[in-house]
Amino acid sequence: MSTCSSSSTNQMAAEEANGSVTMLPGVEDKYGGVVTEISHPMDPSAFSALLRTSLSNWTLQGKKGVWIKLPRHLIGLAETAVKEGFWFHHAEKDYLMLVYWLPKEDNTLPFNASHRVSIAAFVINHKKEVLVVQEKTGRTKGKGIWKFPTGVVNEGEYIHDGSVREVKEETGVDTEFVQVLAFRQTHKTFFEKSNLFFLCMLKPLSFEISAQESEIEAAQWMPWDEYTKQPFVQNHELLRYMTEICSAKTNGDYEGFTSIPVSEHDQQGNLYFNSLDLLPRH
Amino acid sequence: MSTCSSSSTNQMAAEEANGSVTMLPGVEDKYGGVVTEISHPMDPSAFSALLRTSLSNWTLQGKKGVWIKLPRHLIGLAETAVKEGFWFHHAEKDYLMLVYWLPKEDNTLPFNASHRVSIAAFVINHKKEVLVVQEKTGRTKGKGIWKFPTGVVNEGEYIHDGSVREVKEETGVDTEFVQVLAFRQTHKTFFEKSNLFFLCMLKPLSFEISAQESEIEAAQWMPWDEYTKQPFVQNHELLRYMTEICSAKTNGDYEGFTSIPVSEHDQQGNLYFNSLDLLPRH
């Protein structure tokens, strides 16, 4: 697999005595690939010549994937790379990543990101009242429907942190993450991408509500029974399941996945699992 | 939120009597946005003029996000869009999606995909032997380390289907999905993206092993105790947790998340939850 996630510092740019660069500056990745980041404007024909020379050399060196990171202001060079056989791997706001596969064998390039991660927050207080909102946009807008706070987890954010942040942003309520009670995978939910939606239970640490102006019409603590009786909740299979799970959890009859930081090699991460079953009970 | 995930059929291309198009063909999305897909080559200056006229008109119409889907062979037009203020939202192999936000308020455009989904498969037979492989590439290559089969879930594939497919591809063994036992979230694992890694338990339906030539050095059924005694397993926090969870599950002391199809509105999806706790026991 060839990827830009890490790289050696072996700069392969070759400069001749007269100062003209004869190859693109390449950085090796640990999968036998080369990454080149174009940082200065260039004449397309000069770029084309450099690219051809570089590809020939990298082929001789037995390189596999060749990555070109093109910043937005140099997008005019993309056409040249496409003409040389490059295709698109992914893009972020300010750059396009192009890629080419040199070996004759099938490419083993890593997949592009395929999922977005979203959450719904189940926050219940000691009076069996649940924290609910009415949204200003989307499918339920203007219908008087009370829902759990929901949101999309930011890039680089843990699910448990994202759920705490979303509840705070939408309602002003401080919470502590308890468990992931369930999750759901759906496909083709935005563009052609998939969604992983995590139902999180959170414990309230404050109770005063201050609804977010931009997205939230209203927010309140609502008796759980009143929430579950809404026809909108009764009529949707997913919401019925979520309600059953949350009811069981409130009654102490359900165990979800708790979260702990767990490292592997040099990478930090968070493991979510059924800790009640695994660890000695408190 | 403005997205291309669904759209009305309201074509807004305006053609004059002489046949010349004075605006780009736009399709409204359900969030107040406009999507235009460029399908024919165009002179950059003609594209620039069309784009300006279209943006003026869409602004007057109160449109929000403007999306331009540019196929790879027309990437030469990207520079023009960037000069008009567009930035990149995402790219797939054959197209670049550019985006622009017309209103004065902060943009509420949907996030790009942020996660890749991968799996590890825990497959154990009635003799308490676990299905393990040695990989031809990656960190453990050539070290004689026996690992669970792992892999990346394809775009549009469910986690449970992906785990069954990966086991079949790597080892030739047919399996049935049992549960997600745990999952782990890590950041900046490839490019700047995150990974969600699901530990899946599978029940073997066949036992003969045929190792995949391209990726797998060797595969075998290995006594569970022998697997767990490997220093590689003992020395890594994540693998130790995974081993504890799998041992507890084998002894009937652990409950993970099972999977059932659950629909919401018109969308199908799969819900993963602790069904033993929720549903009447069999």
UniProtKB/TrEMBL annotation, chains A, B:
Pfam families per the record? NUDIX (PF00293), Nudix_hydro (PF18290)
What are this entry's molecular-function GO terms? ADP-ribose diphosphatase activity; metal ion binding; NAD binding; NADH pyrophosphatase activity
> Which EC main class describes this enzyme?
hydrolase
The reaction(s) this protein catalyses: NAD(+) + H2O = beta-nicotinamide D-ribonucleotide + AMP + 2 H(+); NADH + H2O = reduced beta-nicotinamide D-ribonucleotide + AMP + 2 H(+); ADP-D-ribose + H2O = D-ribose 5-phosphate + AMP + 2 H(+)
Listed cofactors: Mg(2+)
> What EC number(s) is this enzyme filed under?
3.6.1.13, 3.6.1.22
Q: Which residues form a coiled coil?
A: none
By its UniProt entry, which InterPro entries does this protein fall under? NUDIX_hydrolase-like_dom_sf (IPR015797), Nudix_hydrolase6-like (IPR003293), NUDIX_hydrolase_dom (IPR000086), Pre-Nudix (IPR040618)
Q: Which UniProt keywords apply?
A: Hydrolase, Magnesium, Metal-binding
Q: Which residues form the signal peptide?
A: none
| Domain Nudix hydrolase stretches | 114-246
Q: From which domain of life does this come?
A: Eukaryota
The UniProt entry, under PANTHER family, shows: NUDIX HYDROLASE (PTHR13994:SF39), NUDIX HYDROLASE RELATED (PTHR13994)
User: Which family is this protein grouped under?
Assistant: Belongs to the Nudix hydrolase family.
Chain's role:
Mediates the hydrolysis of some nucleoside diphosphate derivatives, possibly using both NADH and ADP-ribose as substrates.
Instruction: Tell me the protein's name.
Output: Nudix hydrolase
The species this protein belongs to is: Brassica napus
